[in-house]
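*Target chain*
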Amino acid sequence: MSKATLEFDLTDFDDRMEFERVNKATDMALVIWEILHNTRKGIEWDLEMDLEKGKTLTVFDGVDAVFNKLIEKLDEKGIIIDNLIV
């Protein structure tokens, strides 16, 4: 069986950032999967419900809905992009 060991100098800023990225890689992959497979349908359903309630929607409502859902999914996994990208 092949093995790999990653080593980081956590006193070095660049290594610390790389460690944080590696540490969150699975969570980021799960968020991307969730967005691609489930989130679109949920957003469509939410917007359709708003329309059925008589709400007038603009393209900005759709954009806001998408970005709010992205932020929600990232928050659920504790992914803070500003901590991973500088």
